[in-house]
Amino acid sequence: MLVQLTKIQNFIDRHHVLSLATSNQEELSVCSLFYAYDKSNQIFVVASSEETTHIQHVLHNTQVAGTIVLETKQIGKIQGLQFRGKFTPLEGRGLSKIYFKAFPTALVMKPKLWQIQVEYFKMTDNTLGFGKKIIWEL
Predict the structure, then answer these.
(1) Which residues contact 95 (CB under 8 A, 6 or more apart)?
(2) Domains parsed from the chain with CATH numbers
(3) Is residue 81 within 8 Å of 67, Cβ to Cβ?
């Protein structure tokens, strides 16, 4: 299980934008967010305004899903990650340091920071064989 999580985390480290899906009753939303990632706790840290549709959704429904993908047309190099987790206001000062280390210019904007506690990862990695899946659950 640790080897699987390490493979997933190495993929996460090579990217910086995730797509996030949220819902509130019948309304759906999807957005793209810059992220920093805390490997020790499987937490994405993101910045977003409370006025956005996705934040309005998570104030009522904290369960979210998302993806991170490598864009390529070469089938043998396709990699992508799906995740599910709980989206809440940021807890802990250490996590904000992770975000501002990754995006120092964001500090000037004083953004509201949030965290996604990941509960499930599913990674497709064709570099390991066509359609190879790696799954990790909390």
Answers:
(1) 38, 43, 45, 113, 115
(2) 2-137 (2.30.110.10)
(3) yes
